[in-house]
Every structure is written in structure tokens, then in C-alpha cells.
């Protein structure tokens, strides 16, 4: 499999991790999930992300999940693997293992202990050194990590850490950050790296308008992200927003802290993508009223998609 580069574009969907009702890994559902993501036109997959319940997996399970996904894809799509860890040694160990298995690159979020710009730069400089020639994604998700990385710091990392090839942009609000980073590269002050955006795609049309290259996030209807990115790529901005608007109520519901992932898995199970909607404990469960909400949103979404011919 070709390695991740600065030119990456499209939709790298954040994959859920399917579990059986008893919490065991569901390998059959991993296969059907991979098939589904591929069928709806995603560019690549990202596994072991935060909403892939990566912290709930053992080190052995993490490698097994990656191996199963890569085997199912058989090189047809690139796979990025989340390898964030409290220390550089376990991060390096997992990164080496998944790259040997055929991953395209890895993703690294900063530890919560980072408090200053210099500390943020020093951390990613160390990540670059430890990973060697492995391309990596800088995950910028301050709402979860509590680490804010200013555009000037990201620009410094891009200049001095050559194997940082992508920014996973999840700052919120963060449109100005994309604008600032693109200004640096447009002026020739630094190289242009790929920017893929997260947050469930809630700001995807606006992010594309600011210079993002696509999405790296999860949603129970990844068709939305694929449609928005494809429409934007051919200059049909109005169609991109029309597609986005049809899915927005459900995407918004999915972004709730606590039950958001449970809602995503509920819909994926309902669609036959995975067998069980279970989260590994500790994990939220939808109440009957939550399910009623989701079902109402699905019905309204279906009608709207029919109206716009999507």
C-alpha cells in the first residue's frame, strides 16, 4: 500500500470498532463494516480513533483490529491508524507494527500535559524523530485533548518535521485556523500539507471553502461527507450545501457527548453494517426516548433526500 502524503484528499472515515453484546470483538462485523465503507465511496479508513473506542482495546486487540481491516481491504484503500499513547515508546511500537502490516500512515494526538507552544512543538518534533520515515497525521482536537495548538506552531511543525504530512483539523471554532495555514503555504512560506476535518462533519462545507482537502471523521451516513467533498471538488458549492443540509439534523444529534457514539452504532446496526450496536463497557446506551428521537430524524432525513434526489 502506498504511504500517506501531503496530497491526500477525500474522505478518510473514522471506523467504529464492532463489538458483540458481551463486549468481545466482532470480526465478522469488521468485515461487513469495511465492505460498507468501501461501497459508499470513501477514500480511506482511519482505525483506532477516539470514537473507535481505541482506549478500551488491549495492545494485542489493537493490532488484531488493524490486521483484520487491512486484510479485508487487501490494498484497495489506504488505512491510517491512531497510535496516540501516554509515552513515545508504546506509540512507536504500535506504529512500527501497523506499518509492517501495511498501514499508510499513523495519527498522533498531543498528551494533555502540553501547556505551551514550545512544548507542543517539542512533542511533535520528538514524534517525527521516533517515527523515522513513517508519515503521520497531527490530530488537533482541543475539545478532547485540552491542548490548543496555534497556527504558527503547526506551521513550525510543518517546516521542521518532514514526516508530518496531514493535519486532522478539529478545532472549534477553527475556520480561521485553516485560513491561516493555507495563507502560509499559498505565500510559499512553507509546504502545503493535507488538511482533513473532523467534528462529525458539522462544518464540512465551510471547511472545504477555507481550503480543506476533505474529511477524516465518523458519521453513520458517510455518504454525506463523500457527497459534500465530491460536489465541492467540481465547484458545485450549492449542491454540497444541499446534501449537507439534508443530513445535518442527524449529524448534530450524533455530536452529543456521551450518547453520540451510541447513536452512531445504533444506526449502523439498523443499516446492517454491524451486527450489534453495543459499546464496550463503560459505554452509554440509548434510552427508549433517544431511540425515538433517532427514528424521527431518520424518517425526516429519508424524505428530504428523496426531495433533493440524493
UniProtKB/TrEMBL annotation:
CDD domains: DHDPS-like. Keywords: Lyase. One of its GO terms (molecular function) is 5-dehydro-4-deoxyglucarate dehydratase activity. Its EC number is 4.1.3.3, 4.2.1.41, 4.3.3.7. InterPro entries: Aldolase_TIM, DapA-like. Belongs to the DapA family. This is Dihydrodipicolinate synthase family protein. It comes from Rhizobium calliandrae. The lineage of its organism: Bacteria, Pseudomonadati, Pseudomonadota, Alphaproteobacteria, Hyphomicrobiales.
